[in-house]
Amino acid sequence: MIFKAIIHDAEEGGFWAEVPALPGCVTQAESLEELEANLHDAIEGWLLAAEPDTGSPGERVLEIAV
């Protein structure tokens, strides 16, 4: 899977990033190289925490057969 991340300069130095397709998936680091590794870990963690039926933590989905 490929996800896009938005990278920001952190006010206190370093960087932080968010993954718009995964609400709440954010991370930070002192360097861009470290940020890339942290993003990989953050995305994996988000996906592991996702509800199996919905793909998103906290969402509820009801399937209706008609």
Automatic annotation (TrEMBL):
Per its UniProt record, what InterPro entries does this chain match? Answer: TA_system_antitoxin, TTHA0281-like, TTHA1013/TTHA0281-like
What name does the UniProt record give this protein? Uncharacterized protein
What Gene3D superfamilies would the database entry show? 3.30.160.250
Q: Which SUPFAM superfamilies match?
A: TTHA1013/TTHA0281-like
